[in-house]
């Protein structure tokens, strides 16, 4: 048997590796954070909300792929959804659990309970509104011309899905602690990820998508009781969802005008020019005035920026690890 060896970090070259909306958003937020990512540094542990969302996406990927291979009105029954939750979460824990050092095992078990309650209810809630699938969780790499540079840059990413309804619509899955409609609305049309993926779909298909479906799923906030068993906790979450399922599951169809996408393309071009010149110039960064405390708390890179301490970080094997994650 040949023993698997860890790949050595070979560095980041946007002309070779491409760019994702994630690295561009990180650069927009904090160029020091983008520089650390481009040098291969990644946190040992992810934030709880982020990791919950990643696992939820994997569960949806696997079940939506099943739906795409079945007749349009087919919806998975509760038993199949629960077994999928178990298979996806067990696989994820085998692949990533060593990063937790035992610190998140109990919290992850609680997450699994939440997902056992949430996802059967999600598929039951939407089973009368099936989507006509075109693709599910497709990874893309499309060329994009940037003025002032000889080569085309590659835009890369992974779409949650594409379905057909009088044209192509993009699916954008989101997990949130609360779904506040007043905070969405027209702000979705300015979302970098949504516009980046919409433009990539236009480039690959030659057609402007009709729009996107913002598919919001609420992450339960109920805590495990002091003397409550996990099965009892699952039952309590199920009852809470059943009382008001619309507070857990929301979908917003947002149409996209070609003029809006053209405006985004111009803005993206300017951002890419700035980003590529920054990378070419050695990725200079600012350590003052950056958002070290955000809506999710203290930045995970704070120990590096202030004390050059890397103990809570690891070296990545590839630049865009998120594109390799799958639910198989």
Task: Describe the fold and architecture.
Helix 4 (48-68) packs across helix 5 and helix 5 packs antiparallel against helix 6 (105-126). Residues 1-5 have low confidence and may be disordered. The protein has a single domain, classed as Lambda Exonuclease, Chain A (Alpha-Beta Complex). It contains 10 helices and 12 strands. The protein is globular and about 60 Å long. Helix content is 43%, strand content 17%. The strands form 4 sheets. A 5-stranded mixed sheet has the order 3-6-7-8-9, with helices on both faces. The chain has helices at residues 14-17, 21-29, 31-38, 48-68, 78-96, 105-126, 192-205, 230-243, 258-280, 302-307, and strands at 19-20, 41-43, 133-136, 139-144, 153-158, 161-164, 168-176, 211-218, 249-255, 293-294, 297-298, 313-315. Helix 7 (192-205) links the parallel strand 7 and strand 8. With 328 residues, it is an alpha+beta fold.
Largest sheet descriptor: 5 strands, mixed
Low-pLDDT stretches: 1-5
Number of domains: 1
Strand content: 15-25%
| Secondary-structure class | alpha+beta
Proportion in helices: 40-55%
Rg (CA only): 21 Å
What is the string of helix and strand elements?
A: HEHHEHHHEEEEEHEHEHEEHE
Strand order of the largest sheet: 3-6-7-8-9
CA(first)-CA(last) distance: 23 Å
Question: What is the third-level CATH name, the topology?
Answer: Lambda Exonuclease, Chain A
């Amino acid at each position: 048997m040949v023993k698997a060896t860890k790949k050595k970090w070979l560095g980041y070259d946007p002309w070779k590796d491409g760019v994702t909306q994630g690295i561009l958003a990180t650069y927009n937020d904090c160029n020091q954070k983008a520089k650390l990512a481009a040098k291969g540094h990644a946190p040992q542990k992810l934030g709880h909300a982020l990791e919950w969302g990643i696992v939820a996406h994997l569960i949806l990927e696997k079940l939506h792929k099943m739906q795409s291979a079945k007749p349009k009105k087919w919806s998975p029954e509760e038993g199949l959804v629960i077994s999928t939750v178990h298979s996806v979460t067990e696989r994820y824990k085998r692949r990533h659990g060593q990063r937790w050092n035992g610190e998140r095992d109990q919290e992850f078990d609680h997450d699994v309970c939440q997902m056992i309650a949430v996802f059967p209810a999600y598929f039951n809630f939407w089973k009368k509104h099936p989507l006509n699938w075109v693709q599910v969780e497709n990874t893309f790499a499309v060329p994009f011309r940037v003025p002032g540079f000889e080569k085309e840059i590659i835009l890369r990413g992974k779409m949650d899905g594409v379905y057909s309804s009088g044209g192509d619509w993009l699916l954008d899955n989101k997990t949130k602690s609360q779904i506040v409609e007043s905070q969405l609305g027209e702000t979705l049309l300015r979302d970098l990820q949504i516009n980046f993926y919409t433009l990539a779909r236009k480039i690959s298909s030659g057609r402007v998508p009709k729009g996107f479906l913002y598919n919001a799923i609420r992450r339960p906030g109920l805590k495990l009781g002091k003397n409550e068993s996990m099965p009892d906790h699952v039952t309590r979450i199920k009852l809470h969802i059943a009382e008001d399922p619309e507070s857990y599951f929301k979908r917003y169809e947002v149409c996209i005008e070609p003029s809006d996408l053209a405006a985004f393309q111009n803005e993206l071009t300017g951002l890419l020019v700035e980003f590529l010149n920054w990378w070419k110039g050695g990725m200079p960064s600012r350590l003052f005035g950056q958002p070290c405390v955000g809506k999710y708390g203290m930045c995970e890179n704070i120990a590096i920026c202030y004390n050059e301490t890397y103990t809570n970080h690891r070296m990545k094997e590839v630049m865009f690890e998120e594109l390799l994650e799958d639910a198989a």
